[in-house]
């Protein structure tokens, strides 16, 4: 039984209480490891270490910090198979997905912000003949990074890399459901020679150690990805302490398909945007709206292809749909399918819990589902299910498509399929979302602003947005004339 540890001040150690939490393997439903049940005592030790490490991390300079992040990226890449296996076992996602998406993206995150550390500059504003203003963008100090279970290392490093690149020291906490690759990351950072205390990684429950991170007075900024409800709790805690907050929350993303689209390209991508990672991605297009003339052809083809998806052992190379992350989440997702029927929807395929053979008989498996016949106001179209479930509905014209797309409390991402360029730009401008993909999905340039509007969050990650979040601008005015 692997018992993982916190990483504080360059040392691996259990929670101060010595208590541990059980960690379940989603594919088998069995306890396979344990993690520290950390609390505010561990947070205080991590913050002390981070504060003590801050001057040395500063003294390394941009080039030194850049080299360190590049070294961490290299070590993750060298250990890709170890990271991918750990990620797949811990989250239930297919090993092939962890190997081709999750871990390579974590490498890219560190590589991208390794270069950002050197390139990041600021502005000056000249008052002709009178004075020059220059802006310093200085690191905040000690920052918190809290991440969810759906893309564990991918999202954890998406926060840690820019925080470190901007010159901060980090107290990070992964989800208690998927702690494994964060533990491997701590080992990689340690082996890369990251100075003690620059990166501290704590494990444990959100309401306990997560809350303690947000509450600690010397953590001046928190970057969070997770559920909208949890985002509210963090905001309530941080606001009166005037902390900087970046909140990347839930989504209920529309996938709008016009009859003039490239059908095959749209179908191939829509299967991915609907069911990749078992729909456990905040960017998945879970509400599909199809222009009436194309609706029946689309519906029949989507059902046909969805039924072909291979649900099974995450370790098997042919598996496309692994296990959901937890028993609780499996119950939540299958509960929404019951609700869909109660609301008058028709489940055209999927939605059945699967009992696989042998060691997998207690795993959290469910077949991907397509639901039609629901209206916009129904809960299955308003609430984030976050599983392999999509709803489909026809629309008549652009105005109706926009009203449907914008008709929820969320505004994270959207996908639009059409060959009409004018329509594409016209709709992109009106869709209430932080991200609009036209004739593509999940095509990511790390320089672009990433995040949502409405209840999908506050702030943006990525590129200079992230570097500016993790720094404080200071304007200095130097008078040189007008005497
Ligand atoms: O998120 P949580 P979970 C959505 C999705 C999912 C729901 C809950 O609908 O079903 O959120 O998922 C920590 N103070 N998304 O359980 O609970 C927690 O330990 C500080 C969308 O993963 O928000 C974990 O590390 N931290 C999302 C992290 O917050 C707290 C991706 C996320 O946990 C805390 C994942 C507290 N009081 C889920 N309570 C997206 N947009 O990508 C919890 N945590």
Low-confidence stretches: none
The radius of gyration computed from the alpha-carbon positions, rounded to a whole number of angstroms, is 23 Å
Ligands in the structure?
ligand TXE
User: Distance between the terminal alpha carbons, to the nearest Å?
Assistant: 75 Å
* Annotated CATH architecture of the largest domain: 3-Layer(aba) Sandwich
CATH class of the largest domain: Alpha Beta
Structural class, by secondary structure, is: alpha/beta
Structural overview:
This protein folds into 2 domains: 268 residues, Aldehyde Dehydrogenase, Chain A, domain 1; 201 residues, Aldehyde Dehydrogenase, Chain A, domain 2, CATH 3.40.309.10. Helix content is 41%, strand content 23%. The protein contains 15 helices and 25 strands. A 7-stranded mixed sheet has the order 15-18-19-14-13-21-22, with helices on both faces. Helix 2 packs antiparallel against helix 4, helix 2 crosses helix 6 and helix 4 packs parallel to helix 5. The radius of gyration is 23 Å and the shape is globular. It starts with a strand and ends with a strand. The structure holds ligand TXE.
């Amino acid at each position: 039984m692997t018992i993982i540890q916190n990483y504080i001040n360059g040392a691996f150690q259990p929670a101060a209480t010595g208590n541990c939490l059980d960690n379940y393997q989603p594919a088998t439903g069995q306890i396979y490891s344990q993690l520290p049940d950390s609390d505010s005592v561990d947070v205080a030790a991590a913050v002390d270490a981070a504060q003590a490490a801050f001057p040395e991390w500063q003294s390394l300079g941009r080039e030194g910090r850049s080299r360190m992040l590049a070294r961490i990226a290299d070590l993750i890449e060298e250990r890709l198979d170890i990271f991918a296996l750990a990620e797949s076992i811990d989250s239930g996602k297919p090993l092939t997905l962890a190997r081709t998406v999750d871990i390579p993206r974590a490498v890219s995150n560190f590589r991208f912000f390794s270069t950002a550390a050197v390139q990041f500059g600021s502005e000056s504003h000249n008052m002709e003949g009178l004075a020059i203003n220059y802006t310093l963008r200085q690191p905040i100090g000690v920052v918190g990074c809290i991440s969810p279970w759906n893309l564990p290392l991918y999202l954890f490093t998406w926060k840690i890399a820019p925080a470190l690149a901007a010159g901060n020291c980090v107290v990070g906490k992964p989800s208690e459901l998927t702690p494994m690759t964060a533990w491997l990351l701590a080992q990689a950072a340690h082996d890369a020679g990251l100075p003690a205390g620059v990166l501290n990684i704590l494990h444990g429950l959100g309401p306990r150690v997560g809350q303690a991170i947000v509450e600690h007075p010397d953590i001046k900024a928190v970057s969070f990805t997770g559920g909208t409800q949890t985002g509210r709790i963090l905001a309530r805690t941080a606001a009166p302490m005037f902390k900087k907050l970046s909140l990347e929350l839930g989504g209920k993303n529309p996938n709008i398909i016009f009859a003039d689209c490239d059908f095959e390209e749209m179908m191939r991508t829509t299967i991915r945007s609907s069911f990749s990672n078992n729909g456990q991605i905040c960017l998945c297009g879970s509400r599909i709206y199809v222009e009436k003339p194309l609706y029946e052809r689309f519906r029949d083809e989507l059902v046909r292809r969805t039924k072909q998806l291979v649900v099974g052992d995450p370790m098997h190379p042919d598996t496309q749909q692994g296990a959901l992350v937890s028993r609780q989440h499996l119950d939540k997702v299958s509960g929404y399918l019951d609700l869909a029927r109660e609301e008058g929807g028709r489940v055209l395929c999927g939605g059945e819990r699967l009992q696989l053979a042998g060691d997998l008989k207690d795993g959290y498996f469910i077949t991907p589902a397509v639901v039609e016949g629901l209206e916009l106001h129904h809960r299955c179209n308003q609430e984030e299910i976050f599983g392999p479930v999509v709803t489909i509905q026809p629309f008549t014209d652009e105005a109706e498509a926009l009203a449907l797309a914008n008709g929820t409390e969320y505004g994270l991402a959207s996908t639009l399929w059409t060959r009409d360029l004018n329509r594409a730009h016209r709709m992109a401008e009106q869709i209430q979302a932080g991200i609009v993909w036209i004739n593509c999905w999940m095509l990511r340039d790390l320089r672009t602003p990433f995040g949502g509007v409405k209840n999908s969050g506050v702030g943006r990650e990525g590129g200079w947005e992230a570097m500016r979040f993790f720094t404080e601008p200071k304007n200095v005015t130097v008078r040189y004339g007008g005497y």
